[in-house]
Specification:
4 strands; four-stranded mixed sheet; Glutaredoxin; 88 residues; alpha+beta
Length: 88
C-alpha cells in the first residue's frame, strides 16, 4: 500500500478542509490503495522538524513533497493521482 504523509495542525482551517476532502476522495476505489498517515506537527514535533516545509497542510510521498499549504479539492485529487501514478 502506498503511504501519503500529511502534516497538519488540528486548529488550522485549511487542514480541516483538506482532511474532509481527503475523506471524501479516498472513498473512491481509484484511491483505495493509499494509506494516509496524518501527523499533527504540534504533537509530533521531532518528526515534523525532520521535514522541509513551512505551511500546513503539507503532503509527502516517499520523502518527496507533493504540495504545501492551502489546497482545494481538485489540487488534492491531483496529489492522490500522483501517488497512484507513483511519482518519483
Amino acid at each position: 500500500m502506498k503511504k501519503l504523509r500529511v502534516f497538519i495542525q488540528k486548529q488550522c482551517p485549511y487542514c480541516q478542509a483538506a482532511l474532509r476532502d481527503l475523506a471524501s476522495l479516498t472513498q473512491d476505489s481509484a484511491f483505495s490503495g493509499i494509506e494516509l498517515e496524518i501527523i499533527d506537527e504540534l504533537i509530533e514535533r521531532e518528526l515534523a522538524d525532520s521535514y522541509d516545509y513551512y505551511y500546513v497542510p503539507t503532503f509527502y510521498y516517499k520523502e518527496k513533497k507533493l504540495h504545501e499549504g492551502a489546497i482545494d479539492k481538485e489540487e488534492l485529487k491531483a496529489v492522490l493521482e500522483a501517488v497512484i501514478g507513483d511519482v518519483r
